[in-house]
Amino acid sequence: MTTATFDFHLLLHSASLVEDELRKRLARMNIRPRQARMIDALAHMEPASQVALARAFGITPSSMSTMTARLINGGYITREVDPNETRSNILRLTDRGRDLLADIHAAWGDIDAMIVARLGAGRAASLSAVTRDLRDSLGGRAPGRNARTTPSNRLEART
After folding, report:
1. How far apart are CA 68 and CA 136, in angstroms?
2. CATH number assigned to the domain covering 8-158
3. Burial level of 71, CB count in 10 A (0-12/13-18/19+)?
4. Do 68 and 77 meet the contact criterion of CB atoms below 8 Å apart?
5. Per-residue pLDDT tens for 108-152?
6. How many C-beta neighbours within 10 Å does residue 106 have?
7. In which region does residue 6 sit, left (phi positive, over 0), alpha (psi from -120 to 50) or beta (all else)?
8. What pLDDT digit, counting tens, does each position of 30-48 carry?
9. Total-model pTM
10. Three-state secondary structure string covering the chain
11. Is the dihedral of CA 54, 60, 61, 67 positive or negative?
12. Distance (Å) of CA 59 to CA 9, 62, 66, 158
């Protein structure tokens, strides 16, 4: 029997290892990686409907409901009935959720620094560009961001 190798497996395995490191850092804050992404997205989108967040993350409304319940119980977000559409819920960050953003961003910065330490700055930048291109070509985008990130608007965002 021959053993087949698949390049994408390396990407999946690397992503899993990186997420494990991120999970350890976020555990200190008592949140999970997807919850951190949701808090960050909500900071860009708020107020946002639960349905809009589910769409932005590509998950079912019931999965989003479970995630929002955990974040509400943690005191990071609030949920209220949309006054314009009583069948819809509006989500907002609480002060506690807003305060957590800096810690989330610091954890993400730690992971970026870990990747740079392992690969070097040039290869880490190349990895970031290639994975961004792959995400974009597959129709993905960062939740809460309206425009696709391109080399020109990435530069504009830094200045």
Report:
1. 26
2. 1.10.10.10
3. buried
4. yes
5. 999 999 999 999 999 999 999 999 999 999 988 877 765 443 333
6. 11
7. beta
8. 999 999 999 999 999 888 8
9. 0.79
10. CCCCCCHHHHHHHHHHHHHHHHHHHHHCCCCCHHHHHHHHHHHHHCCEEHHHHHHHHCCCHHHHHHHHHHHHHCCCEEEEEECCEEEEEEEEECHHHHHHHHHHHHHHHHHHHHHHHHHCHHHHHHHHHHHHHHHHHCCCCCCCCCCCCCHHHHHHHHC
11. negative
12. 23, 8, 11, 30
Delimit the domains of the chain by residue range: 8-158
Residues in the chain: 159
